[in-house]
Amino acid sequence: MSRARVVVVGAGPAGMMAAAQAARLGCAVLLVDEAPRPGGQIHRQPSPSLAGGAVSAAARPEAERKRRLFDRFVRHAGTIDHRPGTSVIAVYGLDRILIADETSSQLIRADALVVATGLHERVVPVPGWTLPGVVTAGALQALLKGGRVRAGDRIAFAGTGPLPLVAAAQMVEAGATVPVVALLRPLWPGLLRDPAALWAGRGVLSEGWRWLSILRRAGVPVLTRHVALSVSGDGAAERLVIARHDGHGRPVPGTEQRFAADTVAFNHGFTANSDLARMAGAETRFDSRRGGWLPVRDSDGATSVPGLFVAGDAGGLAGGLAAACDGAVVGAAAAGWALHRDAGRFAAQAATDRAERARHWTFQAALSASWELPPDIHALVTPATVVCRCEGVTRARIDRAIADGHDGLNGLKRNTRAGMGSCGGRSCLRTLAALAGPRGEGEAVNARPGIRPVALAALANRVSDESVGS
Questions:
Q1: How far is residue 334's CA from residue 17's CA, in Å, rounded to a whole number?
Q2: For 218-236, what is each residue's pLDDT tens digit?
Q3: Closest Cα to residue 415, out of 379, 388, 385?
């Protein structure tokens, strides 16, 4: 008799732990991931030829978390069918999941599907943000972790939340000069009002203090309540202009400052990669702080679609520590569903991870206020500013469509082509929704097959479709 199959999409902390847990509990597990090696963004692995090297004191806690995560995964990796360099490009139902690599495609089946696709960075467009040399803070981290490449010599950071601070400190350690870190909000007020959250996150806070100390020793100015106004340069980024804002995101006249930089890194929070869950029919809700359009899920990760589970940041921003615990909880629930049609069957197997997850969630809930954007921040998007980079759609074009009555995301997409490019709207849909107002944020754009770019040759080269557990 073939074993019940759990398909896990994404091999970051949540996906790795979901796959390991389901395999431990007796399921046949297929782990699909776009990257060549597991780990996700936070634990991105370089190629074996680039591995090794000294780990700084500030980076040791993350390195230790990575070691523990991989130790737990490796114990069961031999029984997991791991498909690196592979994307899920459509979900027509749990019995028809279309995957593709560079050369071929295949329809597969699952008794339970775990979506652990994480999130992507959000950027509020400003004039000049499409210039070469303008990147996201996470992209800088990915190049450094995955390729040992420091993308820039003089790197300015702007945005919100803790990521710009951490990435800036990492760039300083890598030998870059950081002229400024400009944050829209201070990080601490929400935490200082919540002693339980402070205690729950004491380890993370200690780690954050180490990164902040690196910036202070390097003399990097960290300016809170400041907003990026523009990036300019002769064909590439050369300077960042910031100003103090009035609390609502509008610049205070006379407070402008200019910083020379060959690279400018933005991060204005994150958007959950919920498109696969939405394509499968999961009910969603909008939560601006935690990642936009989030699948509605219970404490086991179960969605409104029987057999469909969401794990980690794909279900709402909570950080890598919470994602790993959540993955283990969801993996147990998915195994229970796949084997017995009972998501609670193995709940006791994940009791420790469930308790640890609750602690991390307490800390992240208090920290989440630091990601909230000031209400008038999008007033800085000028009519000539490009909002959709892939299709070159400006705010003026979007405003005309809204004035014509196309104020929902799907209508704006059809009428302006914003969100139709190769990134699938990951760079622009949150901005589009904010410009459209309440209806824009309330309406998730339709998720359609072809969620990731795929070669026509891969679609044409369909290998034999699989049955459950084959």
A1: 12
A2: 999 999 999 999 999 999 9
A3: 388
Calculate the CA 438 to chain-centre distance. 23
Q: Average pLDDT for residues 61-75, to the nearest whole number?
A: 91
Residue 441 has a pLDDT of 79
In angstroms, what is the C-alpha Rg of the chain? 22
The pTM (predicted TM-score) of the whole model is 0.94
The residue to which tokens 């459509």 are assigned: 90
Instruction: Please count the helices (runs of H) and the strands (runs of E) in the chain.
Output: 15, 22
* Distance between CA atoms of residues 113 and 302, nearest Å: 10
- For residue range 408-431, list pLDDT tens digits in order: 899 999 999 999 988 888 889 999
Per-residue pLDDT at 406 exceeds 80: yes
* Neighbouring C-beta atoms of residue 385, cutoff 10 Å: 18
User: Two tokens at 109?
Assistant: 């089946």
- On the question of pLDDT at 470 being above 60, the answer is no
Whether residue 466 is predicted with pLDDT greater than 70 in this model: the reply is no
Tens of pLDDT, residue by residue over 281-321, are: 999 999 988 999 999 999 999 999 999 999 999 999 999 99
DSSP state of 251: B
Task: Find out whether 265 and 138 touch, Cβ atoms under 8 Å.
Answer: no
3-state secondary structure of 72: helix
pLDDT at 287: 92
Task: Using alpha carbons, select from 174, 186, 116 the residue that is nearest to residue 140.
Answer: 174
SS (H, E, C) 303-342: CCCCCEEECHHHHCCCCHHHHHHHHHHHHHHHHHHHHHCC
Which contacts qualify for 426-431: CB closer than 8 Å, 24 or more apart? 426/120, 426/271, 426/273, 427/123, 427/388, 427/389, 427/390, 428/387, 428/388, 428/389, 428/390, 428/393, 429/271, 429/292, 430/122, 430/271, 430/292, 431/124, 431/125, 431/378, 431/381, 431/387
DSSP state of 222: E
In whole angstroms, what is the distance from residue 84 CA to residue 9 CA?
11
pLDDT at 438: 81
Contacts of 404 (CB under 8 A, 6+ apart): 415
- For residues 215 and 168, the answer to whether their CB atoms sit within 8 Å is yes
Who has greater pLDDT, 346 or 206? 346
Q: Which among 34, 26, 24 has a CA at the least distance from the CA of 5?
A: 26
Buried (b) or exposed (e) across 438-468, using 16+ Cβ within 10 A? Answer: eebbebbbebeeebbebeeebeeeeeeebeb
